[in-house]
Amino acid sequence: MSDDGVYFEDDEISTKTDVIIFATGYETKIPFLDDKYYKANNGCINLYKHIYPLGLKHPTLAVIGFLQSNGPIAPISELQCRWAANIFNRKQKLPEKQLMESYMQKKLDSNKDLSSKLEEDFITYMDDLANECGAKPSLSTFLFKDPSLFWLCMTGPFLPYQYRLTGLHSWNGARQAIFQCPQRISTPLDTRIQEKNNPMKNFQDYKTLTET
């Protein structure tokens, strides 16, 4: 550095600079947990399915949302919480530690080309989590029982509502939410809101009723 600038590599003349910003990235770390509980010898994060630290004797801690995805984190975190709740209340058990360690090693070996060991494909990871906690629907069964739902799940956008159709924490409104998705997408794009498609109609009727 000089009084009014910096010397770049192989430069003999100082480049005048007003501000220097060090973009050094960030450290992947869980501040409240000792590294030995969640980091492997090579420094990689050692969390089973990005949730459970393998260094702990008992599964009394679940790390939520500690990954990178090509999709939204909120649905992932919600499904992680559902699985963690099932483990905490002892409705499910994690695999034996040796099996989890073997899984993690295979995962690390297969992700060598990734820039971050925390990266996951959104749909693949959600399917994996749902399978673990018993919330993954068998879409093939809908082909004959509910063909309209099957068609929407197969050809429409990927919606986390499908993990509420059956199994763990199923929700009666999940099917309706899937069918209403196209309308929720198109309504904000209308140039004017039609009365029959106006999602605020019931609210406006209620507001008018309460004000009179």
Write the layout of secondary structure elements.
Blueprint lengths: L4 E2 L8 E2 L30 E2 L3 E2 L14 E2 L3 H16 L8 H14 L8 E2 L1 H12 L5 H7 L1 H9 L18 H13 L14 H11 L1
Parallel strand pairs: 5-6
Antiparallel strand pairs: 1-2, 3-4
Structural class: mainly alpha
For the CA atoms, what is the radius of gyration?
A: 25 Å
Shape label: flat
Main sheet specs: 2 strands, antiparallel
Distance between the termini: 73 Å
Strand order of the largest sheet: 1-2
Helix content: 25-40%
Summed up, the helix count is 7
* Tally of DSSP β-strands: 6
Mean pLDDT: 82
Order of helices and strands: EEEEEHHEHHHHH
Task: Please indicate the percent range of residues in DSSP E strands (runs of 2 or more).
Answer: 5-15%
Low-confidence stretches: none
